[in-house]
Amino acid sequence: MGTPELISPRSPRVLAAKRLARRAFRIKERRFIAEGPQAVREAVAHQGPGGEPTLLELFTTVEAAERYADIVDAARETGARVHLAPDTVLAEVSQTVTPQGLLGVCRFLDSPFEDVLRSRPRLVAVLAHVRDPGNAGTVLRCADAAGADAVVLTDASVDLYNPKSVRASAGSLFHLPVAVGVPVEEAVQGLKEAGVRILAADGAGDDDLDDELDAGTMGGPTAWVFGNEAWGLPAETRALADAVVRVPIHGKAESLNLATAAAVCLYASARAQRSGNSAGNRR
Fold this sequence. Notes:
By secondary structure, the protein is α/β, with parallel strands linked by helices.
C-alpha cells in the first residue's frame, strides 16, 4: 500500500480524528468527519473556493482499501494522507455502530451567506430551529435532490457538521452551497432583498400548498423556511414570511415528519419553476 499501518488507537493521528466527534474541536480545527464510501467519494471530488482539496486524511481498513480502491487512489491523487488502519482504529473514530471501513477528515465547506445571495438563488431551504441532526441532514439531501440552489442553517439550528447530520445528508453536503449560523431575521431579509419569496412551512398555515400551486404563484424564486419537528415555527418566525403554507393531509395521518414535508414543498416549487407558468412569470 505504501502507507504506514496505524496499529494503535492511541496514535496521534487517530486521537486527533477522534476529537472531531466534539463540536468544540470541530470548530477549533475547522474539520469534520465523513464516513462511508458515498460520503468519502464525494469529499474526494469536492474542492474549496480556491481549488484546495476538501479531503485531508483518509483512514481505511485493508478490506475497504481493496473494495474501494478507486476511492483510495483518488484520495492519494488529491494529496490526502492515506492511513491503512485495523478495524479497532476505525471503531475508535467512527460514530456508527458498524463502520464501513472508510473514514475521511475534511475541511469545513460552508459558504458565506453573502455568496448565496450573490448567486441569485431560485430555490432555497432555510432550516430555522431545526435541532435534530438527522432531520437537518435529510432535509439537505431533499434540497439537493429537488435541485435547490442553497441551504441555510440559522444560528438556532443544529451543527451542520454533527456526524449524524453528515451521514443523513448521504453526500449531498458536498453538492450545494450551505450557509450556517445566520440569524433567521437576517436570512429572511437578505433573501427578500434578493427577490426571493419567503414561504414558511407549517401544519397550521393559513395557505394550502395545493391552492398555491393551483393559483400559479410558486414559479418564482422561493425560499422555504422549515422549523422544529416537535413544535414547528415560532410565531415571530412565521410573521417574517410572505405566506405560511401547510401541506394538505388528505388521509387520516396526523401530520408529516419534517423531512417528508420538506421534500413535498421543495419538489412542488421545483416543478412550478420548471413549468414556467407561474403568475410571477406571466407578469
